[in-house]
């Protein structure tokens, strides 16, 4: 790693961690401290009010939104680098390394919070807390009875997912930066609407069976393959290999798109 890449990565990482800290502080103030204050004023405050408010703040979900939004803010960072003599390649490398580090830190924070705070307040064991998660419900027992190894698998799986989210944000943010203001606004409005109707169409196609009830439709077969479905295994024992490979391929595709878009960016007057 060159000196410029290291310095730029450090700058981006510290900057993003600062904003992440402010986001979590706002989250705590909005969903924990303010309700506790209102409870205190109304006379319904108890010793368990504040801990209960802090027990489940959706830290992981908030970080998912944060990583997508921050990585999609491409143009201003690009403009600042170009105006200060930093090459496109250096800028892109620093952004990707920052994404890798930031996503890992965010996943670790969310994991520690969930298993250290939320699980305790809900009186869940580590295994039960893992199994009630979407990942755990599918793959929480894949590595056997060792809960720690399964939690490590959960962290790795979630990290790859967050990296893919960030790269998708970079690709979309960069692509939107290439468009004119009018077209950009049109795309932002139209694409989500088309995506919504596409999901409805897929759901309708899947629900209108032309197959016997005991035979899966092609869409159902594809879905089961992608999630690592195991007909002989109980919930929590599905195989995460295919989902992980799929996510890695998705990361490579989105990374390639983000890099291509990065090469096309220009500083606008």
Give the topology.
Layout: H1 3-42, H2 49-54, H3 59-72, H4 75-83, H5 88-121, H6 126-131, H7 134-139, H8 147-177, H9 181-207, H10 218-226, H11 241-264
Helix pairs in contact: 1-3, 1-5, 3-5, 3-8, 5-8, 8-11
Describe this structure in words.
With 269 residues, the chain is mostly helical. It has helices spanning 3-42, 49-54, 59-72, 75-83, 88-121, 126-131, 134-139, 147-177, 181-207, 218-226, 241-264. α3 (59-72) runs antiparallel to α5 (88-121), α5 crosses α8 (147-177) and α8 (147-177) packs parallel to α11. The two termini are 32 Å apart. The relative contact order is 0.11.
Sheet-strand content, in percent, reads under 5%
Average pLDDT, all residues:
83
Number of helices: 11
Taking all Cα atoms into account, the compactness measure Rg is 22 Å
- The helix-strand sequence is HHHHHHHHHHH
Low-pLDDT runs of 5+ residues are none
Helix-and-strand structural type: mainly alpha
Q: How would you describe the shape?
A: globular
What separation lies between the terminal Cα atoms? Answer: 32 Å
What's the main sheet like? Answer: none
Brief characterization of the structure:
Keywords: Membrane, Transmembrane, Transmembrane helix. With 269 residues, the protein is mainly alpha-helical. The chain has helices at residues 3-42, 49-54, 59-72, 75-83, 88-121, 126-131, 134-139, 147-177, 181-207, 218-226, 241-264.
Task: Give structural attributes.
269 residues, mainly alpha, globular
């Amino acid at each position: 790693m060159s000196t410029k890449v290291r310095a730029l990565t450090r700058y981006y990482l510290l900057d993003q961690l600062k904003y992440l800290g402010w986001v979590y502080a706002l989250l705590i103030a909005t969903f924990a401290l303010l309700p506790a204050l209102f409870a205190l004023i109304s006379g319904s405050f108890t010793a368990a009010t504040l801990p209960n408010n802090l027990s489940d703040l959706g830290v992981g979900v908030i970080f998912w939104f944060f990583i997508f939004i921050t990585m999609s803010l491409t143009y201003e960072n690009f403009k600042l680098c170009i105006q200060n003599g930093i090459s496109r390649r250096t800028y892109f490398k620093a952004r990707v390394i920052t994404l890798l580090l930031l996503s890992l830190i965010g996943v670790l924070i969310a994991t520690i919070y969930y298993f250290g705070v939320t699980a305790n307040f809900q009186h869940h064991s580590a295994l039960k807390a893992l199994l009630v998660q979407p990942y755990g419900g599918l793959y929480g027992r894949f590595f056997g009875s060792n809960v720690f190894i399964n939690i490590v698998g959960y962290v790795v799986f979630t990290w790859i997912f967050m990296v893919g989210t960030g790269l998708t944000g970079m690709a979309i943010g960069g692509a939107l930066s290439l468009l004119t203001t009018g077209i950009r606004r049109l795309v932002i409005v139209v694409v989500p609407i088309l995506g919504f109707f596409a999901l409805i169409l897929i759901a309708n196609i899947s629900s209108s069976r032309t197959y016997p009830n005991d035979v899966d439709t092609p869409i159902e077969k594809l879905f089961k393959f992608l999630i690592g479905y195991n007909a002989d295994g109980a919930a929590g024992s599905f195989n995460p290999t295919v989902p992980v490979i799929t996510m890695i391929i998705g990361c490579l595709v989105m990374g390639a798109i983000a890099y291509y878009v990065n090469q096309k960016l220009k500083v606008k007057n």
